[in-house]
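Reopening this ticket.

The earlier resolution said the output was attached, but the attachment link was broken on my side. Pasting everything inline this time so it's all in one place.
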Amino acid sequence: MLYLDHAATSPLRLEVRDAMLPYLTGAFGNPSSHHTVGEAAAQALDEARSRVATVLGFRSGDVIFTGGGTEANNLAVKGIVLAALDRGRRHVIVSSIEHESVLAPADYLHRFHGVAVTHLPVDRTGRVSTDDLRRALREDTALVSVDQANNEIGTVQDIPALRAVTSAAGVPLHVDAVQSAGWLPLRDLGADAVTVAGHKIGAPQGIGVLAVRGRVPIEPLLHGGGQERGRRSGTENVAGAVALATALELAASEQRAVHEAVGEATTRFIERVLTAVPQAALTGHPHSRLPGSASFTFAGVNGETVLLELERRGIVSSSGSACAADSGEPSHVLLACGFDPDLAQTAVRFTFGRAALPPGVPDRLADAVADAVRAAAGT
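Inline output:
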């Protein structure tokens, strides 16, 4: 079976498993305990924090380990905005194609705290305009949150250009890098807060990071023992932190070679699908996109039926975000890009891993997609 749903989750890397194993067995201590077992765990946690900070371009003290990308995004959006309320800042800006873990916290702030929310429009390819961002900024804007790369269509935003706008206005910028980590450089983003999830880069599920610069006040969402410098209470997942640090370092070291190899294979696959399937249309930006991401609409064919036909042929993919797979609703990302709801329901997403595909596989995969679409259409 060929697994092409890496945007949903990726397999655990063997190097990561080996790195985390000692902290699941012998060095299993609570890092807050003042004895040798706890101190060994605390040292590993500090080292993991420093390693993550180096890859992301933050200080070690800026790194907050969380239970995953969703918690990290919630902490960024809610935490930064809640901390700004007493300064009269009651406005947050998010793009209209953000992950639900950004959109839902913004909605929460509106419903329970009266925070005004602006949803930035995107063009047909999913790109945010700096002019739209500049017009949306207000004197009371507390935060702007934009993902570096979209999880459904793979479009990559021009973060440096967006950062120049927010910086000139003195507004913090949060970047959701859950999908882009390992594929794109993160160190020089210049963002005030960055989110990463371990299971997208070869670490296990259940570990994430929010890196937030020390100058940005943040209100904790979890209260208790005061771990993570009081910003996220709860006994730290030491093995998970070591795993995330290891996976992030490996992905960063391999990034250039993987980007090139996987990007070439994905481009070949896209070209073949568009040639072999008459009703296929690529979604997202044709060039400014993640190298391993390819998403199509297949006009007149139900996307879920195509997925079933693909799985019969040994290919696992998805119709979009795994977090919204059971909703039955058209993708909010495609709707924001201007797609008709019926056409949005035909979307299928293919997301490749970091392993180079053998020669000929992109072509054979495209042929299988064409076959699956014909079967789904009953032709």
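Reporter confirms the inline version is readable. The longest strand covers residues 141-147. DSSP finds eleven helices and twelve strands in the chain.
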